[in-house]
Amino acid sequence: MAEKILSSRAEATKSEMVPQQRPLMPVHIFNAAIKGDTDYLVRCLGLLEEREVRVTVRTSQSTPQQTEEEHETVQFVLGSATRFGDTLLHLLITKSHNELALKVFTKDMSLLKARNRKQETPLHDAAKVGNEEVIRDLIRLSPSVVKDALGKTNENEDTAFHVAANHNHKGVVSELMKLDPQAAYEENKQGFSPLYIAIVEDHTSSVIAMLQVDATLACTQFSDGTFPVHVAARRGNAELVEHFLREYPDYAKLLDSCGRNLFHMAAEQGNSDVFTEVFALAKDDNPQISQMVESMINARDYEGNTPLHLAAMKGHESVMTAILDKLNYAQAAQVQNRKGETAFNLSFDQRWDNKEIDQNKIDAYIKKKGWYFTRHWFDDVMAPIANKLERTQIIGLGSVLITTVAFAAAFTVPGGYNADNGAPVLGKRFMFRAFILANTLAFIQAFQSLFLVILDALSDLRDLDLEYALYKFLSAASCMVIAFGLGSYVMLAPVSLPIAIIVLIVSLLVGSPTVFFILLMERDLYERVFTFSSAVIGLLVVTPIMPIILIFCLALL
């Protein structure tokens, strides 16, 4: 018997989801609805004037008498729809022709539940465009009809409440919330309620609008076991987390299905702003919040992990730093989860698995500091590096550019070629030979840099390849600047020797220190690129003035 009842209900629901087959809306009615032509629609449909609407709804009187033919025409127009299934009420509400929409609603209230091909009612359209005014007036005219329409879902099983929350129309959210607070708990086919959608989409104003009508929503547990503050912390919405804690101080003690509080959520996603805001709130607010923060920061989930464990596991340095600034380093390092792992163990493992690991640094740190967190661990060992893909793209693009320019300069030399024998006109000059050498060094080193970038992408030697490529790129850039100065000197010297000398000196001053200063920023570049046994040779190779020495010495030959 129960199975028959459930089956009949499912069939009824399914039949409701099929849009009613309606006749095609006449073109003149469609155009009038889009333009909001009040006079024409009132004349065609015998709609009530605005002052008559309230009287008709209150007394349930019918409209002025019509002939049977006129009545059939009106019913045909009201029952018609566009090719997309939109009724007259759909069109008027979407275009915000609110007075006309109210008159049509009064004429046929069932239109508010009419669905188009996307299963959307006019109430869905009002929520989508944020037509707060018409929703307020519809509720005023017939709250029961609007409440019934609010229960209708579209093809995604979203109610109008879901749509309003998704589009952050807080005025519509507030009106629908006042009409039916229970609608905020309804879930769509993804299992998301309007409150969950508003939090995930960072629509803080809509969330607060719901809570102002029904504060108990703050204690709603979603289908994934989380509470609203957990979702806000996971999204990194520090403003909303702070609002929850101010308005509902005990609320942060709620745990999800894994035994995690809001700090666990924020730590796992690397949302350091949440920690910063909550710590500031605890410092400036009442002692109750301060005690709550202390308990949450040290709390363990069902696997024994504190927020620091989760941040270390994911390698979120900013979160780890924020937590350790609040805690004692040594004390935090001793806390173990159920597997016997400390946060430092997890941080070490995460760093070890990273392709950018510097094993020597980690070994030296552990030998000197032991298995404990210190500021040195973050400032040196876990120092953030540029995104590898981004670095590779920059080095590769720069190398291609230098290679292209150097290749072109090799065949369009300063002064041109001798028409008789094809030899460079200025080929016997010292500065010309120096230019050719500088341009050749730029081309070769840029090509090597590009080759190393490709090798880095295809091989497992990912640490050394990119460092060599970076050095080769910087050296090629330096040679390119020097080549520019030498080429300019060759061209300008016969015309204005002082200007030629100035250009050359400026090029030499700019070209050499550029590499030197970047090498200073990469303090440990030598250690990462060269072994101890080849350190002396490495220093000579990467010395910034070596390209200049090489260029001018070879030019003497």
TrEMBL record:
Residues 390-490 form the PGG domain. InterPro entries: Ankyrin_rpt (IPR002110), Ankyrin_rpt-contain_sf (IPR036770), PGG_dom (IPR026961). It is a multi-pass membrane protein. It holds the Pfam family PGG. It is found in: Membrane. ANK repeats lie at residues 224-246, 303-326. The chain crosses the membrane at residues 394-413, 434-458, 470-492, 499-520, 532-556. Keywords: ANK repeat, Membrane, Repeat, Transmembrane, Transmembrane helix. One of its GO terms (cellular component) is plasma membrane. PANTHER family: ANKYRIN REPEAT-CONTAINING PROTEIN ITN1-LIKE ISOFORM X1, PROTEIN PHOSPHATASE 1 REGULATORY SUBUNIT. This is Ankyrin repeat protein family-like protein. It comes from Rhynchospora pubera.
